[in-house]
Amino acid sequence: MSQQTSIEVESGILCRAMTTDGAVRIVGVRAEEAASELISAHGLSGDAAAIASEGLVATVLMSAHIKGKERMTIQVQASDPPLSFFAEIASDGAVRGRLKPAIVDSPEGRLTGVLLAIKSNEEHELYRGATSVEAQTVTEALRAHLADSVQIDGLLWTDNGAGMLLERLPEADGSHALTVEAFLERYSPLQNRSAAEVVDVLLTGKLGADDVALLGLRSVYWQCRCSEQRVLGMLRTLEAETIEEMIEEDGGAEVICHFCNKPYAIGVESLRDMLG
User: Which residues have C-beta within 8 Å of that of residue 65, sequence separation ≥ 6?
Assistant: First the structure.
């Protein structure tokens, strides 16, 4: 492994590859650092931390083929246990997310609710798919979404901030070089190894005993897009009466970013400027 690749893995990486026989397409993700940032930013622990980490990795896995100004978003709204998860990633690998509440009781990470997968650009949504989550983990729900909505036939597993997606590819005539049975026999045992270990081996050009061709590497890193200018822009959309109340009653405004919990203190003068 080159030094450059090693550095990228330390901060997070998404790797796309294909077996040299063209039978299997692979996406490998190591996003431990970004998952840790998500957990820290929102004060998560226990089951909440585990679900948030799993959801973030799922989001990164789904972003393998976005480009330009496109973004990939995964949302989970669960009723049992009650929680809301949101993560989005840009094509350059910048990812952010949140999970509420900070305390969740779900020892196996199983949820009941709905999972949304949304691909968008700066102008509009390009794709939206919804999948029911019935006492499933986020990974199991995403696997069902890929099989039912996107028609991806393969294996998907995540653990501890890393994940792998293997897709059995059809040939030009629609047939497959590998039968389902042969695919599972060859690659299912990889799920007994940590996803991070499989990704590290993938970067050396191997998937199990098979040779692979690396198609692309992308850094993955935590980055919130909040800024004082964005906060000011949001406040300018409020009615003048509301801004006047902030000035007279509160002596300013404090806005806390939903994604990184960074507080922005907006002074009275800035608020008065909005009133013209």
Answer: none
Supply the angle between the helices 46-62 and 32-41 in degrees, to the nearest 10.
Answer: 130
> pTM of the predicted model, to two decimals?
0.85
Q: Give the SS3 label for residue 246.
A: helix
* CA pair distance 110, 213, nearest whole angstrom: 35
pLDDT for position 5: 45
Residue type, 232: L
What domains appear along the chain, each with residue ranges and CATH number? 14-222 (3.55.30.10), 228-274 (3.90.1280.10)
Q: Using alpha carbons, select from 272, 274, 262 the residue that is nearest to residue 40.
A: 262
The pairing of beta strand 162-168 with beta strand 24-30: antiparallel
CB 29 within 8 A of CB 159: no
Angle at Cα 79 formed by Cα 77 and Cα 85, nearest 5°? Answer: 30
**Cα(32)–Cα(37) distance, integer angstroms:** 9
Residue spans of the chain under pLDDT 70: 1-10
- Which residues, 6 or more positions from 56, have their beta carbon under 8 angstroms from its beta carbon? 31, 34, 35, 38, 87, 95, 97, 161
